[in-house]
Amino acid sequence: MKRLTQNKSVMEYIYIIFGATLVGLSYNIFFLPAKLAAGGISGVSTILFEIYAISPALVQLVINIPIFFIGWFALGKDFSFKTLLGTFWVPLIIYLSADIPIEITNPLLGALYGGILLGVGLGIVYKGNGSTGGTAAIAQIVKKFTGISSGYSQFIVDGLVVTASIIVFSLELTLFALLAIYISGKAIDFVQLRTSATKLLLIITDEEEKIQTLIHEGIDRGLTKVRSVGGYSNLDKTMILCVTEQQEAVQLKKLLQKEAPTTFVIFINASEILGRGFSLDRYYGQKL
After folding, report:
1. 14, 88, 130, 248 — which has fewest CB within 10 A?
2. Strands across the sheet with 224-229, in order?
3. Phi/psi of residue 159, nearest 5 degrees
4. Residues 177-180: contacts with CB within 8 Å, 24+ apart?
5. CA angle at residue 107 from 60 to 111, to 5 degrees?
6. Per-residue confidence (pLDDT) for residue 288, from 0 to 100
7. What is the mean pLDDT of each successive set of 10 residues along the chain, which is 288 residues long?
8. Residue 104's pLDDT is what?
9. Which H, E and C letters describe the chain, residue by residue?
10. Residue pair 143/73 in contact by the 8 Å Cβ criterion
11. How far apart are CA 199 and CA 113, in angstroms?
12. What is the 3-state secondary structure (H, E, C) of 137-168?
């Protein structure tokens, strides 16, 4: 068991290093040459490079240092060495690949392929339970102290960066940057779950109350419980059916891996969902 844990930890670090490398390369190959400030700290560094010709690697390093320590003190154990590795590996790769001979200056190609490479890189980092810092760290901090969801808060921060790029670049390049953000988000989802828009989760467990609490408190979704019997063990089990959005499925997957790692879970693509929380408002009493 100890060896398996160590092997899993090593693989997670490999994921983070490889994914963060792709993130750094996406910046130097696509976003910087095409002048796309695609949100986040990388977007800020693109804007500052255009105005003052300051090294993007230096800008990202300097900005990420205080963000990391603020997150460390604010979030405690949620910030680990994996976050530290991802946070500083990206600017290192940007620095080392600054003179890479491959550059895509066409903004459409930059948004399309840069968004894919960025999303794949971030998705791999997240599979290693890591982070690249920046706006992701800010989103976690905002979520803790305001109650705003991390996805929404990160969207706000990225949106402000992209909007600011209009002043430096142009509306056309800003729209391409927004396209890159959208594409990268889809690529992240594909790497993490290879999903459609919604997901049906079948959870077979003998820890019914614990899983129910994780679903209710973790992603605020309803569920259906079906009494069942294990075909191998002949022991009583509970099968929990839960339908989620894509990002909620990713979040619940992480919660289950952390809190109930032995639980048997099946993720199924759901093409169309009718009912409360999807075609109807999530809570009773809301205006439809």
Report:
1. 14
2. 224-229, 236-245, 198-205, 264-270
3. -65, -40
4. 177/36, 177/37, 177/38, 177/39, 177/43, 177/111, 179/111, 179/112, 179/115, 180/31, 180/36, 180/38, 180/110, 180/111, 180/112, 180/114, 180/115, 180/118
5. 65
6. 45
7. 65 91 95 90 90 92 85 66 86 93 94 93 83 72 63 68 86 92 82 70 91 90 90 88 86 89 87 67 55
8. 95
9. CHHHHHHHHHHHHHHHHHHHHHHHHHHHHHHHHHCCCCCHHHHHHHHHHHHHCCCHHHHHHHHHHHHHHHHHHHHHHHCCHHHHHHHHHHHHHHHHCCCCCCCCCCHHHHHHHHHHHHHHHHHHHHHCCCCCCCHHHHHHHHHHHHCCCHHHHHHHHHHHHHHHHHHHCCHHHHHHHHHHHHHHHHHHHHHHHCCCCEEEEEEEECCHHHHHHHHHHHCCCCCEEEEEECCCCCCEEEEEEEEEEHHHHHHHHHHHHHHCCCCEEEEEEECCCCCECCCECCCCCCCC
10. no
11. 27
12. HHHHHHHHHHCCCHHHHHHHHHHHHHHHHHHH
Torsion sign across C-alpha atoms 66, 84, 32, 163:
negative
Structural tokens at position 92 = 């290192």
